[in-house]
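During data preparation, we tokenized the protein backbone, and the record follows.
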Amino acid sequence: MQGGWLERKFALSANRTTMRTEVLAGLTTFMTMAYIIFVNPSILKDAGMDFGAVMVATCLSSAAACLIMGLYANYPIALAPGMGINAFFAYTVVKAMGYSWQAALAAVFVDGVLTLLLLTMTGAREAIINSVPMSLKLSISAGIGLFLALIGLQNAGIVVPNPVTLVQLGDFSKPEVLLAAIGLVITGGLVVLRVRGALLLGIIATTLIGIPMGVTKTAGFRLVSLPPSLAPTFGAFVYGLKDVLTVGMITIVFTFIFVDLFDTVGTIIGVTSKAGMLDEKGRLPRANRALYSDTLGTVIGSILGTSCVTSYIESASGMAEGGRTGLTAVVVAILFILATFFAPLVGIVPAAATAPVLVIVGVFMIEPIMKIDFGDYLEAIPAFLALAMMPFTYSIAEGIIWGVLSYVILHAVARRFEKISVTMWILAAVCLLRFFVH
């Protein structure tokens, strides 16, 4: 009976998938993004917030958004508080500009409500997704692949900062770097051999190898622990609402909306185009339902006590394992809820074990670049800028901005106005405005 309900709810057969595949995809996605459970509270702690409360808020807001995505939109896209925007929250809004963390949470709440009312319910974000030219859709997917690979190599310590050249090769005498390299070989080998669950098995194998190497920390390990109290952050945004109408805070709210909008749109376009979920016209079915998920996630997250919730590019790892329906997202949601009790178990998986998966997924994501006509410079230049600017600026949003602006400007220069939709003109204007309020 349960299997029949799952089939009807998620249309498993129609999407050429099975319950086993979807569960495996959910496990893989969760393992690649589980770092947020600890990284997000570590960042927001610097803003004066309680680490334990933020950790619980991170898990619960992620679970809520994933459930909405899975049950309402039926897409295998996982959501959680976004990286980058949480740093803006803590280090710019609170530490640099001097606002309280309660005021910053209030700004996130207003961002979510305004986005829900003005962009999602009006269909504006769906129009944006469907109006982006196919060449840009393909390049966004490839650019996210490069971005993921860079994050993976950085997390592994294989690529490190250099004050002169910006980046350089890491130190392989360090055990965590060596472990990541071993994990890359293991995971790549499993993929080449087409082993089912290759990415998840790679994470598990690398974590186990890391124990004798001293990278996987098991000292004082406990399997289960009670979740910390949510009281220090729950509903605290209310105390910051009085600050939202100040001139400086209006700019902050706009920044939250802008980054949230383009990160989400870019991620959804990128991962769904690679998974073949766009229709023959390059449009995403049920796009508005997918966009509701992160918007409601942001509202819920601000109430619980965390920064903006957004769609995660790590969802591509689950799709690479065959995840094609919302059941994948529901599995991720369940795992986030369980993580509040099994945080020590999730915490022993080192970055060196998940980093190789991000690099391999980067390989999967780069494939759509072959469908771009690089002989047509009107398509090639915007596509290349969108692709290149994501890893080079460490931002999906920046890649989209450069891609949209160059597409509109170059087509206008070439007098190919019929190729520029009204939505693209509006997007270009918004992108230009962004430079003035950066």
